[in-house]
Design goal:
Layout (H helix, E strand, L loop, with lengths): L4 H47 L6 H13 L29 E4 L4 E4 L1 E2 L4 E2 L26 E2 L17 H13 L10 H9 L10 H17 L2 E2 L10 H15 L7 E2 L1 H12 L1 H11 L5 H17 L1 E2 L4 E4 H18 L1
Antiparallel strand pairs: 1-2, 3-4, 5-6, 7-9, 8-9
Helix pairs in contact: 1-2, 3-7, 3-9, 7-8, 8-9, 8-10, 9-10
Length: 339
């Protein structure tokens, strides 16, 4: 059967139009996908720039700056971006890449190459006793650059995903309260810390400064993933657990039951047990700052009261089970009505 040439031509043209339309559609979808990916990438880079504090390693800060510039992102907020400064009072125009020499005896820095004679330069003479010893100095503390990358055992349940749990929210809220970050009216923080230590002879002689160092070191690990050396004495890996065991022994020697004192994880288990999963879910939602406004406000009030009533067992704050029941009873009553 002989096909009509005109009909065959029409069919080829129709197939061509459909093919071109399909190509344009796929191209448009690909362009749209690429624009969305670029938008998300630039947004992530902007977030990275805004998150940088300026005290990270110089290599990391430089990498962040390079990535931000490549993405045409504003880097004015990066405090680490500054013009090179002279490191020696006698060397104000040191070319980039120029050799520098650190004189350990003088604790001074000077240019290491004499361009006039094309020879290596000797260090300047030591100053006389009548003159100031240093014009400028480069002082490097090896302690400052030491970092502790292993977290204390007592915060293991509350870091990573654990920070977002009901127990983690309570734990880090207590850390914030101990640093005076809560804007509500509270008892003087020094008074609260002394009160939290006075319940046992094991912690009674601890200083407020030491407790704050423990808190700051743990907060630093939560935010940066490491702890600075200045907090080293307060963040021994198993110190909290050792002190906890000694406090529990002290309680038993005095005829007291340490099991009646609940940690943040203990509060979560205890409250969940008498609420049930459904009602506890409402409480957990409020703890995360979501859900009904009144329930969230009430939970914030409970956090403040927990700060006022805790004691320190070495591995974190603890509360007597009767106090926990009393604080959550009113909230539980409201939570039942909202489920």
């Amino acid at each position: 059967m002989v096909k009509d040439p005109e009909e065959a031509l029409k069919r080829r043209r129709e197939r061509g139009r459909r093919s071109q339309a399909g190509f344009r559609k796929r191209q448009a979808e690909a362009n749209q996908l690429m624009q969305e990916q670029n938008r998300r990438l630039k947004s992530a880079i902007e977030k990275l720039v805004n998150t940088a504090r300026g005290d990270e390693r110089q290599e990391l800060l430089t990498a962040i700056s390079d990535v931000a510039k490549a993405a045409d992102t504003d880097v004015k907020t990066l405090t680490f971006e500054c013009q090179p400064k002279p490191v020696c009072g006698n060397c104000h125009n040191i070319p980039q890449g120029e050799d520098l020499v650190i004189d350990s005896e003088r604790r001074d820095v000077f240019c290491g190459w004499d361009h006039a004679t094309d020879t290596r330069r000797a260090p300047p003479p030591l100053p006389s006793a009548s003159l100031p010893r240093l014009k400028c100095g480069l002082w490097i503390s090896d302690i400052y650059y030491m970092q502790i990358t292993i977290p204390p055992d007592d915060i293991l349940p509350y870091i990573g995903d654990g920070a977002k749990t009901f127990a983690g929210i309570i734990f880090w809220s207590m850390m914030d309260h101990s640093q005076g970050k809560c804007e509500r009216k509270h008892t003087d923080i020094n008074t609260l810390i002394k009160k939290s230590l006075g319940h046992s002879k094991i912690t009674d002689d601890w200083t407020i400064r030491y407790i704050l160092a423990m808190v700051e070191g743990r907060q630093e690990y939560k935010g940066k993933g490491f702890i600075s050396a200045r907090y080293a004495s307060a963040v021994d890996q198993d110190l909290g657990m050792v002190v906890r065991d000694r406090v529990q022994d002290d309680y038993r020697a005095r005829g007291m039951d340490p099991n009646k004192w609940l940690s943040a994880t203990g509060i979560e288990r205890h409250v969940r047990s008498f609420l049930g999963d459904d009602t506890f879910g409402v409480l957990d939602t409020a703890a995360r700052g979501e859900g009904d406004f009144d329930l969230r406000h009430w939970f914030e009030d409970i956090q403040c009261k927990l700060c006022e009533t805790c004691v320190c067992f070495g591995d974190g704050p603890r509360w007597h089970v009767d106090i926990v029941d009393e604080l959550f009873l009113g909230w539980v009553h409201s939570a039942f009505w909202y489920t």
